[in-house]
Amino acid sequence: MRGRYVSRTLASVLLRRQPQPSGAGAAAAANSPFPGAALRHFSDRQKGQEQPKAFDPALLEFLVCPLSKKPLRYEASTNELINEELGIAYPIIDGIPNMIPQAARMIDRKAQDDEPKQT
Amino acid sequence: MAASIGAVTSRALHSRRHHRKLLSVGRGLFSGARRLVAEGETHFGFQNVSETEKGEKVYHVFESVAKKYDIMNDSMSLGIHRLWKDILLHQMNPYPGTQLLDVAGGTGDIAFRFINYVRSQWEHQIKQKLKSHQNLSWEEIFKSYQEEELKLPGGSQVVVCDINKEMLKVGKQKAQHLGYSEGLSWVVGNAEELPFNDNKFDVYTIAFGIRNVTHIDQALQEAYRVLKPGGRFLCLEFSQVNNPLISRLYDLYSFQVIPVLGEIIAGDWKSYQYLVESIRRFPAQDEFKAMVEDAGFLKVEYRNLTSGIVAIHSGFKL
């Protein structure tokens, strides 16, 4: 049963991973202490520093917006967690997501007017 | 150098006079003092402040002490805080596969202990199986080769949540130094408004953090919400000493020695003054037990450590 749990979480992590620049990820993997961790860090973004400062997508399983308790979307380009419904984005600094409502910023509503709204 | 020592000792003398009065008044009106606070107001140590102010002030306290937090803990408690945290882990007794949420976990002490505990439990389990000549399933053998690199045994996970990103930064660096990488996540979040879904975690711990929360009842309700049914709430916090002799020694030590240590080691008198005052303002064991029960937890118990200087409150979501 434990084996199934491990494979299920691994599968969900792999499925959620978004396409990332693989060159940066490979370099991060080479620096990490455990060779097995190369699988994990492969598609994480590297910020040009020694330790991988990327956000671990596995956290998305746990994280929700503290205000509405709805799931969030990881936006790789701005490195933020976005709540579509409320139109707010939580920043991720040094790989640590900041889930304090005061730290979140409002997303520019104009850009979203063209997209079909999901409720 | 001499001038600064002079300044520190003169401040110490001044505070001794100030606090001898406060101590007698404080002890007398202890429970009453808390109710004298007006609506929308709360306490920050022995001061009365508005609730928004308390949050900010607490944030600044921990922002300034973050880098020296661990050193100060060791010097103030003479290293005993390590024992307290070890006892907390023993009481938790996590098995491999446990999902832990460590709130106000800042520098990660509880999280690292959890990881060590779960790893040693796993090894112990394997050894037991070998001893009793049970064959390990090939799943387990496969995992024992992989587990160290990829995940914690059994899929255990610990999420460290703290309102203060400086403390988390220190914690993350510590993790990298000590070599903890997998199964460990860091999140900046407010204990009163946790960014987690309902019924997610097996254990919720808050060690030396809940007295800094502005609305303790909200934090307890959030704790109840994010725990799975059957989940355990554990709170390690400073509490009231039951022995009068030890109480006097403890008060003396708290108000005379700790702020001075804070000034010498961390260069921050006020923060450690706040620390010892906030300990005095926190409800006693039974009162806090009632608060935990109000949040919905069952089978709430507490256990005094070091004559009540510290207490572990435990409750279950059933």
From TrEMBL, chain A:
It is found in: Mitochondrion. Its main location: mitochondrion. Keywords: Mitochondrion, Transit peptide. GO terms for cellular component: mitochondrion. InterPro entries: Trm112-like (IPR005651). Pfam families: Trm112p. It comes from the Eukaryota. Belongs to the PREY family. HAMAP family: UPF0434 (MF_01187). This is Protein preY, mitochondrial.
Automatic annotation (TrEMBL), chain B:
The keyword Membrane applies. Pathway: Cofactor biosynthesis; ubiquinone biosynthesis. GO terms for molecular function: 2-methoxy-6-polyprenyl-1,4-benzoquinol methyltransferase activity. GO terms for biological process: methylation. GO terms for cellular component: extrinsic component of mitochondrial inner membrane. Pfam families: Ubie_methyltran. It is a peripheral membrane protein. S-adenosyl-L-methionine binds at residues 107, 162, 190-191. The keyword Amino-acid biosynthesis does not apply. Keywords: Membrane, Methyltransferase, Mitochondrion, Mitochondrion inner membrane, S-adenosyl-L-methionine, Transferase, Ubiquinone biosynthesis. It catalyses: a 2-methoxy-6-(all-trans-polyprenyl)benzene-1,4-diol + S-adenosyl-L-methionine = a 5-methoxy-2-methyl-3-(all-trans-polyprenyl)benzene-1,4-diol + S-adenosyl-L-homocysteine + H(+). Its EC number is 2.1.1.201. InterPro entries: SAM-dependent_MTases_sf, UbiE/COQ5_MeTrFase, UbiE/COQ5_MeTrFase_CS. It is an enzyme of class 2 (transferase). Methyltransferase required for the conversion of 2-polyprenyl-6-methoxy-1,4-benzoquinol (DDMQH2) to 2-polyprenyl-3-methyl-6-methoxy-1,4-benzoquinol (DMQH2). Methyltransferase required for the conversion of 2-decaprenyl-6-methoxy-1,4-benzoquinol (DDMQH2) to 2-decaprenyl-3-methyl-6-methoxy-1,4-benzoquinol (DMQH2). PANTHER family: 2-METHOXY-6-POLYPRENYL-1,4-BENZOQUINOL METHYLASE, MITOCHONDRIAL, METHYLTRANSFERASE. Component of a multi-subunit COQ enzyme complex, composed of at least COQ3, COQ4, COQ5, COQ6, COQ7 and COQ9. Interacts with PYURF; the interaction is direct, stabilizes COQ5 protein and associates PYURF with COQ enzyme complex. Belongs to the class I-like SAM-binding methyltransferase superfamily. MenG/UbiE family. This is 2-methoxy-6-polyprenyl-1,4-benzoquinol methylase, mitochondrial. It comes from Gopherus agassizii. The lineage of its organism: Eukaryota, Metazoa, Chordata, Craniata, Vertebrata.
